[in-house]
Amino acid sequence: MDQNISERVNCLIIGSGPAGYTAAVYAARANMKPVLYQGIQPGGQLTITTEVENYPGFPEGVQGPELMVHFEKQAQRMGADIRYGLATKVDLSEQPYKVWIDEEKIIEAYAIIIATGASAKWLGIESEQRLNGHGVSACAVCDGFFFRGKEVAIVGAGDTAAEEALYLSKLCSTVHMIVRRDEMRASKVMQDRVKNTANIKIYWNSETDEVLGDKLVEGVRIRNNQTGETVEVPVRGFFVAIGHKPNSDIFQGMLDMDESGYILTVPGSAKTNVEGVFACGDVQDKIYRQAITAAGSGCMAALDAERYLSEKGFH
Ligand code: NDP
Q: What is the model's pLDDT at position 2?
């Protein structure tokens, strides 16, 4: 073994959201002795949300961070080896595959489960960051319910923004949609639905000057980028839907991806184009992006990995 190689494992899981931990539960129960590296945000995107009301099994709802502690404990109890550390580089050219952790140690693995998730894109303005989780959200399906009957704003003009605006329009009194150009990127059918929804008000050629409020969102100042005019709207929720970025950079050039960097899997499986490498959760799902769908695909990845390891005689 090369002197830089720290360890050789059967099954390496990269990422610690619902997909990664579910894969760990299944892999550990199947005696695959999985090692899981948590990445930069242990627990994943749910750790930055508040209450989760749509994860089955919690009739009273559960806090996102608490849910992720449950996931971690369950994986640990099953025997998964859970560690801090960020995968910084991979070599998938030959078995066993190599994964660099924190740019120093190298783990060799026969099966790799990629569950690195995606990150919401943000506008990057100070008030948005300060009020994040206090009325600012990047997920209407997660947080829209808290603003029922109230006015909200949403930024973006793609299919996600259109879908989320429609979702919010069923809960909220008015949805103020802030679109930076004079047209939307969303598919025509989605645009038509948005335009034909009475309580969605579109602000064309408009940008967010500031999210207003001290401790909670109390409004938004919208600026027309053609005329420079501003208007203040008293919203309680501010949703950002300007896209997600899958955390797949280290696999560029090694795994098949779509044009946005989502890892492609064989339909009905978690298999990537490299045998023994599986992907689950948001890094390969730009459509559903829910904790429960991520968990389900994590289960699929572990079952696929188990089959692969036994077929190859690695396990
Ligand atoms: P997109 O990249 O398609 O759209 C992002 C939107 O955000 C664009 O309208 C863009 O404006 C706007 N935007 C980006 N940055 C800023 C900014 N700083 N300020 C203001 N606005 C900004 O992302 P989506 O998440 O909407 O969709 C991703 C992919 O997933 C797409 O291919 C989409 O079709 C697909 N999808 C499909 C669904 C379905 O089929 N049901 C549902 C959801 C997504 P601009 O147009 O000016 O660049």
A: 58
